[in-house]
Amino acid sequence: MDDRQFRNAMGKFATGVTVVTTELNGEVHGMTANAFMSVSLDPKLVVVSIGERARLLPKLKEANKFTVNILASDQQEISMIFAGQLKDQKKTVSFERLEGQAVIPGALAQVVCEVSAEHVEGDHTLFIGKVIDIRLEEGDPLVFFSGRYRTLAEETN
């Protein structure tokens, strides 16, 4: 199988959209990611997967803390900014604070983590994060499927 076929197959799994942030020397750094999942309830752990070429990788390793912001359906532009699709707009993003860490206002969930372990697998590093605080909001999620942003459809009976 070639790389494109693998990517297309993985794109058939609908995911939520997150922005992973970390802060280093007073500057917030972040990237859009859909490689995120919960790992454990006791202790409360999550994992994010960061590519070896991502600019966020060395910053996250040094900071040893990160936040996961699960985006709402009206936050596609935020996702695109942190995915590098809307250049020169990162400066327009404002942040709130949770446990002293930068989080994205309006995100459905803001999850603050301390890195408890790192595992290099293939061309990514998996960061296991011990959850130290969470803030929740009501709303619908931003969804990504088959290379496109989507929203949930209302169930009709």
Automatic annotation (TrEMBL):
Chain ranges of the Flavin reductase like domain: 10-151
Gene3D superfamilies according to UniProt: Electron Transport, Fmn-binding Protein, Chain A
Keyword terms: Oxidoreductase
SMART domains for this protein: Flavin_Reduct (SM00903)
PANTHER family, sorted: FLAVIN REDUCTASE, FMN REDUCTASE (NADH) RUTF
Protein name: Flavin reductase (DIM6/NTAB) family NADH-FMN oxidoreductase RutF
